[in-house]
Amino acid sequence: MALAVTLFFSCKNNFKEVQKIGISANEPQGVAEGINAKRTDSGRVSANLMSPKMLDFGNRAFGYSEFPEGITLYVYDDQNEKSTIISDYAILYKETDLIDLQGNVIVSTPTKDTLYAKQLYFDQKKKWIFTNQSVTYKSQDYITHGGGFDSDKDFTLTEVLEISGQFAVSE
């Protein structure tokens, strides 16, 4: 009887350990191609993320999805006007809902304002776009160079930080 009780209590539930067998700690738990993910808010599409390839590292302590071949992200305002964000590379952090865009980042708004940056962050929860890297922002009236950028997703509250140059756009 003592042997049976000892065996019963020495067994552990190792289901999570068994699940990890075959998945290297450095490998993604999934790979997807031809991504076209839509985010909705109150039944309306608020964002559409497209990418040729996604690597899912959700098995990490701070899970994320990596887009090694870049993304195209469409963000829609309340009037269903579309801003387009493209980058050569991106990481979406699942826990914080933050997208880290890197390499030739271009943002184009419905009003034809355009932002060029090496790196840009998009906080999907706060609906905020920002960077502390150098940027060039082209509006209808000015081209502005600076050391950072802050804006709401609709580009109604934009600010170029640490302005290093501003040029009037002439017709």
Class, according to the CATH hierarchy?
A: Mainly Beta
The largest sheet has its strands arranged as: 2-3-6-7-5-4
CATH superfamily: Lipopolysaccharide (LPS) transport protein A like domain
Q: How would you describe the shape?
A: globular
Strand residues, percent: over 45%
Q: Which stretches of 5+ consecutive residues score pLDDT under 50? A: none
Provide an overview of this structure:
This protein has two helices and 14 strands, in the order H-H-E-E-E-E-E-E-E-E-E-E-E-E-E-E. With 171 residues, the chain is mostly beta strands. It has one domain (35-168): lipopolysaccharide transport protein A fold (Sandwich). It is globular, with a radius of gyration of 22 Å. The model has no long low-confidence stretch (mean pLDDT 86).
Notable characteristics:
171 residues; mainly beta; lipopolysaccharide transport protein A fold; 6-stranded antiparallel β-barrel; 2 helices; globular
Provide a brief overview of the structure.
The chain is mainly β. It has two helices and 14 strands; from the N terminus they run ααββββββββββββββ.
